Write a sequence for this structure.
């Protein structure tokens, strides 16, 4: 029987899933596929919480599909080799996917596309994880935006013209009625994590603009992990927003801004967006870096943030800015070190946003915080956690500061200036 295949990646849901919806409307039965990509899994700890979340989400979707005598076909390995096997096993006439804009993903998808098309099978791509793809919001001359505010204004104007498309319905009866061997988490090489992903909550966004900078209030939506793995669509989220939720909407636009920066400037993965900062001589002291990672800098807000990250996989956004600025400017440690550590620990790790925010903090990125803007972690504590409620939740005992703020600030200004002159 000739069928079509849908490949789950960053879209782990059955509802309002663009490519899946198109696949289910073909009139042919749909084989749902998920591949645990060994190139992505390599190097992850066996109890990686994100892998557990993906696995548990697949299990939950599978329960739903069993109602229709269907099941997700879960495989592990190199995606190109896995698709070679699948194309040999099934009479697949087309593969449906939602677009992914990260450099590795685009290269992977191109390789799978070449394989499939060599067998006469098209790989059909659809926009899904964003409202506007990286090529839709550009300047009048066709070049990408590198400053957020004009990008945001163009985004909002285009959105007002087009509005969000209606949510897509899924005909689950169109799935291929076939069961597959279901691997255990252990078979994939992992064990269940003690760290769990919190459900997202959009019920209290009316207070978001006033409370979002106060970590003790815990007033964030916890949406980022779910957008990262696609357990909810961005369209579903925006449909729930009110006219007063513009600050929250602007955060969603930042997400797409950084995605299009990564798409148009993939070199930012390992390099400064602004090459004039290439001359900075980072100290890169390993002892200081280890203390920062453990939350032992002697600055309560910094240490609380790192301990929250290490224990839960989350860190409040305001605290992320303070923590990142402290590493780059107080300790003069290369932003790439901090970015890599966040990539290991953050449940919502997403290359585009992680890279963009770290370069913003270091001053090296597009539309970044100026290099001479150096957060005073003590002043930030007094302003955003004055009763130390957040700090006391995570820090039992605070050590002496590993560096004096005034001394560190002067040193950072000198090193940045020397780096700019050297370049």
């Amino acid at each position: 029987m000739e069928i079509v295949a849908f490949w789950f990646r960053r879209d782990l849901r059955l509802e309002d899933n663009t490519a899946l919806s198109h696949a289910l409307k073909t009139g042919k039965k749909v084989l749902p596929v998920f591949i645990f990509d060994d190139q992505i899994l390599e190097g992850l700890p066996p109890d990686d919480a994100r892998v557990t979340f993906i696995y548990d989400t697949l299990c939950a979707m599978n329960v739903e599909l069993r109602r229709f005598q269907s099941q997700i076909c879960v495989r592990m390995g190199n995606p190109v080799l896995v698709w070679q096997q699948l194309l040999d096993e099934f009479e697949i006439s087309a593969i449906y996917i939602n677009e992914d804009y990260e450099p590795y993903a685009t290269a992977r998808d191109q390789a799978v596309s070449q394989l499939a098309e060599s067998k006469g099978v098209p790989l059909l791509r659809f926009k899904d994880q964003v409202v506007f793809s990286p090529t839709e919001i550009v300047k009048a001359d066709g070049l990408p935006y590198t400053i957020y505010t004009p990008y945001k204004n163009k985004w909002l104007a285009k959105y007002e013209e087009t509005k969000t498309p209606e949510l897509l319905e899924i005909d689950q009866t169109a799935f291929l009625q076939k069961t597959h061997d279901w691997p255990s988490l252990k078979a994939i090489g992992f064990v269940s994590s003690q760290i769990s992903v919190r459900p997202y909550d959009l019920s209290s966004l009316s207070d978001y603009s006033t409370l979002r900078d106060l970590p003790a209030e815990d007033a964030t939506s916890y949406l980022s992990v779910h957008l990262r793995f696609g357990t909810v669509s961005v369209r579903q989220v925006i449909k729930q927003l009110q006219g007063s939720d513009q600050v929250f909407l602007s955060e969603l636009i930042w997400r797409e801004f950084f995605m299009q920066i990564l798409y148009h400037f993939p070199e930012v993965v390992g390099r400064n967006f602004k090459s004039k900062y290439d001359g900075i001589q980072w100290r890169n002291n390993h002892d200081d870096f280890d203390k920062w990672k453990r939350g032992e800098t002697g600055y309560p807000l910094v240490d609380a943030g790192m301990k929250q990250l290490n224990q839960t996989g989350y860190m409040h956004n305001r605290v992320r800015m303070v923590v990142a600025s402290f590493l780059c400017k107080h300790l003069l440690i290369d932003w790439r070190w901090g970015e890599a550590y966040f990539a290991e620990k953050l449940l919502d790790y997403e290359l585009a946003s992680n890279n963009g925010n770290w370069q913003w903090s270091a001053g090296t990125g597009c539309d970044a915080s100026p290099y001479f803007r150096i957060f005073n972690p003590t002043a930030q504590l007094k302003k955003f956690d004055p009763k130390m409620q957040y700090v006391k939740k995570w820090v039992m005992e605070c050590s002496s500061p590993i560096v004096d703020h005034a001394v560190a600030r002067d040193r950072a200004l000198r090193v940045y200036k020397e780096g700019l002159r050297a370049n």
The chain has 19 helices and five strands. The chain has three domains: 1-128, 130-166+198-264, 269-422. The chain has a mean pLDDT of 95.
